[in-house]
Design brief:
This protein has helices spanning 2-91, 97-120. It is mainly α and 129 residues long. It comes from Geothrix rubra.
Length: 129
């Protein structure tokens, strides 16, 4: 019986050794695959970061274009609103003259701001934060 026990133990040790060897080989393969996956993910992330940066620059460019397009109508609207608010003061004498002067001053300030903004031209790219 002791001989049979030695044979069974020997076969068990050989089987466990073979299984552990196969497990280590598979662990190495898995580690290599994970390393390749991590490198690929890092490259993809770098490309995506570049794409996001490029998209941000395009959004800033479109925002600057929209600001330039809507600046003149916005200023003109402010000037017209100031003139319209001051119109009733010209027709009704009961109101104090301070409101007339305030409306005229607001309109003149808006017009001066509009003219100064047009003379200065568009802001430079480097001046933005």
């Amino acid at each position: 019986m002791s001989m049979l026990l030695q044979i069974v133990l020997s076969l068990s040790i050989v089987t466990v050794t073979i299984l552990l060897g196969m497990l280590l080989v598979q662990a190495r393969r898995t580690a290599a695959s994970v390393e390749r996956l991590a490198e690929s993910a890092a490259q993809d992330l770098h490309r995506m970061a570049g794409d996001v940066h490029e998209l941000r620059l395009k959004v800033v460019e479109v925002a600057d274009l929209a600001r330039g397009v809507f600046e003149l109508p916005s200023t003109l609207t402010q000037v017209v609103a100031g003139v319209v608010r001051g119109m009733p003061a010209f027709f009704v004498r009961r109101r104090p003259t301070g409101r007339i002067l305030e409306a005229l001053l607001t309109g003149i300030q808006s017009a001066v701001h509009l003219l100064r903004g047009r003379k200065a031209g568009p802001p430079e790219e480097g001046s933005r934060a």
